[in-house]
Please model this.
Amino acid sequence: MKLGCIGDDFTGSSDLANTLAKGGMRVTQYTGVPSGPASVDVEAGVVALKSRSVPVAQAVEQSLVALDWLLAQGCTQIFFKYCSTFDSTPEGNIGPVMDALAARLNATRVIACPAFPTTGRSVYQGHLFVQDQLLSDSGMRHHPLTPMTDPDLRRWLGLQTQHAVGHVTAPTVFAGADAISAELDAQHALGNTHIIVDAIRNEDLIAIGKAAADLPLITGGSGVALGLPANFDCSPSRPDWTSQDGKCVALSGSCSVATREQVTRHKEKHPSLEIIAANVIEGRQTAQDIASWALQADGIPLAYSSADPEVIKSVQNEYGLEQSSQAIETLFSDVAALLVAGGVTRLLTAGGETSGAVVEGLKLAQLEIGPEIDPGVPALRASKDLTLALKSGNFGALDFFEKAAGVLGGSV
Ligand SMILES: Nc1ncnc2c1ncn2[C@@H]1O[C@H](COP(=O)(O)OP(=O)(O)O)[C@@H](O)[C@H]1O
Ligand SMILES: O=C(O)[C@@H](O)C(=O)COP(=O)(O)O
Model:
């Protein structure tokens, strides 16, 4: 294994794996830290953790265990993948994990770049934009677990880390890889360890990737991985895929704006069932009810808890954030297990935490990366007769669920 990656959630990990696979690397996504060695032909290993929203100490500990395993597989470079919307609270977990990885790797110039222009995320003047809005004006300000209320990444990361945060500005990035490397050195000389790097176009990300060739640690969204395969002598290719027929079901726990629109669109043509958080918490709506409904429904049935910010707020006020999100995640995990036991072969999930709960609940050790469904979302194969698509909350076209069913089924 050459490139070792640690993803702080499961959709984010598949997003990164997708970029590396398209860049021609042989990639495997692991569910947590594997207990044995990786297969020798894996060039990039992505250890998917569910560490984005857990307490800081747990996120750090899990990330260091993942790091040790990746180093033991021979990795010469480590990539820490977080969300392109920098999902985190003022306490972490991005900063503390970066601090711990940097200390273990003796990394003194650590790039932090969540930009992913293909999906509208750009970093300019140290600020993160979602399309034409500052992050704090986008739907992310209402995220159920990590509301993003400050678009200045230097300031937000500064709250989370022990280190001083530097910045490589856009004009330097536009000047190319050598200029970026020189500025990383200059930032280090100023005492800055973590360095926000501006990027608004794919060519910026490729230049950053080139400048990062000899760095032990890179952090960011999947965009900044665009330039990495070339550093390992890999060139773009389309991953192999064997089509999968059979029953397809969609589960959505994401409350992000894009997912809510996709849910509304999907309901027009396919059977749907709304999951009401209070009913789940009080035991009136069970995994068995939902799975039985989905297994009998035609088309691509969708069970969803996706709801507007006011609904989420009132549930969280009544039952607490932790209890309500846990109850929904456990439900989805149980539903997924019943669906797969009932013969579902194509499972679509929306939401990072939701997808993590499902994949961990299904005890899927590793995932093979297939072709891209929409930017940042690959087809995944878990076994001979189970395929998945783990959709990040804000990714995917309006007809994502239908489209994903088609790609898994080999019809696109
Ligand atoms: N109706 C609901 N009420 C309260 N919490 C919810 C509801 N639906 C989903 N959630 C919780 O909101 C969180 C959504 O996060 P996630 O799955 O990561 O989506 P995204 O990828 O859009 O961030 C999960 O923890 C989920 O359990
Ligand atoms: O970088 C991204 O935006 C995604 O890869 C990702 O991490 C998304 O997470 P969720 O929105 O929580 O699914």
